[in-house]
Amino acid sequence: MGRPPCCDKIGVKKGPWTPEEDITLVTYIQEHGPGNWRFVPTNTGLSRCSKSCRLRWTNYLRPGIKRGNFTDQEERKIVHLQELLGNRWAAIASYLPQRTDNDIKNYWNTHLKKKLIDFPTNQDGASTSSSSSDATTGAKGQWERKLRTNVFMAKQALTDALSLDKKSTTSWQHAPHITPTAPINHQPELPLMQPRSLNTTNYALSAENIARMLPNWEKNSSKSPQTSSDSINTSNLQFQSHPTSEGLKNYNNSEVSETTSLLQDESKPDMESLGFLEKCLFDDTVAEGYDRFMNMSLEEADALF
DNA sequence: AAATTGTACAACCGCCACACC
DNA sequence: GGGTGTGGCGGTTGTACAATT
């Protein structure tokens, strides 16, 4: 028998989150930290199911999420990682700090998939072209990639295991008593926020917005920067019941604060301890190295691990 | 200017893995 | 070892907005 849904359908609100709901959720997480999602709706009074709360936090409210404007480098990484890992968006997201799996998934479905269909052979070097342009070598290429992926995953698991102690030093200051469990939370908490679009009228929201709504948010994060945008007077905000209010429009148009270098430095992986592939992925300057990896023979690739 | 079509993305749904009892 | 609850993940949908006719 199938399990009942995580929350009964009656009385559970659906659809876009309002600023008020976001504030409520963020305020609660500020005090209690993320986790124990099942208690969040009852403790906050939100008419949302626990899953919805977790998703909202994970994908949009938590610090360190960058939205929109994927760079070429990020695009290349996504394409390569998708080829390596398949549609394992959470795993791919773990190599793209500041991006959520949902964001990457959406970007793939709306942009990259189409691009690859339009330009299947010259997308990203030999690895793609070799598999798509030659049917006879295609099967072998797939087999090799599969094997390589297995090796890669084993390596990743090892790296993750070895870096467990390092994760405990990440900037989870606002919830030090709770260790993030989601893979994406293993990534740096970079308060670099970007609105969905500078001219959007959506309440696309960003944690920066929430940060502005909540003066204590910055206060509680000892390493957060004090930028000019922080001086925005929250009393000027006039939230309306609908997300597309003018107040929020102004929000999204306001200056985007800079990244906290401290947080970034702190949470960036220790490059010394990373393997060849990880270095390729994290360091934009060695993207060619990644291509080299993809073009290596299986034996050569294995030797790296 | 209005209607239609296309695009982007936030959010939901259902399944699965894991932890706990 | 089996049952149950929770969190996580990937696929998919709904909807707002933009572009085109």
TrEMBL record:
Domain HTH myb-type positions: 9-61, 62-116
Localization per Swiss-Prot or TrEMBL: Nucleus
Compositional bias per record (Polar residues), positions renumbered to this chain: 218-244, 250-264
GO biological process assignments: response to auxin
Keyword rRNA processing: no
Pfam families registered for this protein in UniProt: Myb_DNA-binding
Major place of residence: nucleus
Region spans: Disordered: 122-142, 218-267
Keywords associated with the record: DNA-binding, Nucleus, Repeat
Gene3D superfamilies membership: Homeodomain-like
SMART domains the record matches: SANT
SUPFAM superfamilies referenced in this protein's UniProt entry, alphabetically: Homeodomain-like
Record's GO cellular component terms: nucleus
Entry keyword annotation includes Cell inner membrane: no
InterPro entries (alphabetical): Homeodomain-like_sf, Myb_dom, Myb_TF_plants, SANT/Myb
Annotated CDD domains: SANT (cd00167)
Listed GO MF terms: DNA binding
Superkingdom of the source species: Eukaryota
Annotated Myb-like domain residues: 9-61, 62-112
Compositionally biased residues, Low complexity: 124-139
Protein name per the record: Myb protein
